[in-house]
Amino acid sequence: MSTYIFGHTNPDSDSIVGAISLAYLKNHLGEECIPTRQGEISPETEFILNKFGADVPELKTSYAGEKVYIVDFSDLGQAPKDIMEATILGIYDHHKLGDLTTSTPLECWIRPIGCSNTVIKEAYDYHGVEIPKDIAGMMLCAILSDTVIFKSPTCTKIDTKAVKELAAIAGVEDYKALGMEMFIVKSAVEGATARALNTRDYKEFAMGNEKLGVGQLEVVDLSVFDKMKDDLFADMKKLKEEGGLHSVIILLTDIMKEGSQLLVVSDDESKIESAFDCKLEDSQVWLDGVLSRKKQVIPFLQPQF
């Protein structure tokens, strides 16, 4: 019976590419694995897969009775509803340890670095497995995406070293130019619904007795949202009601200006203001230098709850 590998709900490029790259490694090591996904892919991920000739992983949302590896998360809120009925064989991640538990020992690769694909690159090196050209290209794109082309505070020397080594394998001469091409695709929002944008890179987190939804949209120019904010806010209110959430926060991140506009819908805005030592105006605020949800947003929200 095959083992399935997948990333979090509302998958980003790291979780999709991570499923593909880890599945190749596991298959090479003699373990039959299939990459899957929990949701629709983003335009950026579609660009990456097309660029390197890869198929979109199978959509699968139920894993009861299956053996699985999970990539890029370890929180129940980002897992399939029946994850506790599956056997988790391993976790490959670069976030804080979440609230998933297992009844049996597991393989666990969790590193304080910029991208899950960097962790998977280390696993390839550890096992002495050669990375195929197409998979190397996808992995370097995932790392460039998660580290915002090395601008994110989550980026480490391990990530930059991995990109350089992967670029050599993939035959990519100017990986920063490829990264900018990718972010231009990521910035294309015309024609997308407010729900599609709000949930493009959206995660829910349990904090104390409350749940929060935090999404992020990374673009090269925030002006693309000038005529869309009312629609984004209206949909955020629906997301909050549908999920029974305390707050929904969307980061509109400008990778050129290196900061984020926070949009907030909350039962108590003062908690958000205290977290970031700011004053919201019309339920929004600019946070200079904030590029990382993982390192610059979630750790500051958590103590408020």
UniProtKB/TrEMBL annotation:
Q: What class of enzyme is it?
A: hydrolase
Recorded GO CC terms: cytoplasm
TM ranges = none
Domain annotation DHHA2: ranges: 179-305
Question: What keywords is this UniProt entry annotated with?
Answer: Hydrolase, Manganese, Metal-binding
* Cofactor section: Mn(2+)
Q: Which residues form a coiled coil?
A: none
Reaction(s) catalysed by this chain's protein:
diphosphate + H2O = 2 phosphate + H(+)
| One Pfam family named in its UniProt record | DHHA2
Enzyme Commission code: 3.6.1.1
Molecular functions (GO terms): inorganic diphosphate phosphatase activity; metal ion binding
Gene3D superfamilies linked: DHHA2 domain, inorganic pyrophosphatase (n-terminal core)
UniProt-listed PANTHER family: BNIP - RELATED, MANGANESE-DEPENDENT INORGANIC PYROPHOSPHATASE-RELATED
What protein name applies here? Answer: inorganic diphosphatase
Q: Which organism is it from?
A: Sulfurimonas gotlandica (strain DSM 19862 / JCM 16533 / GD1)
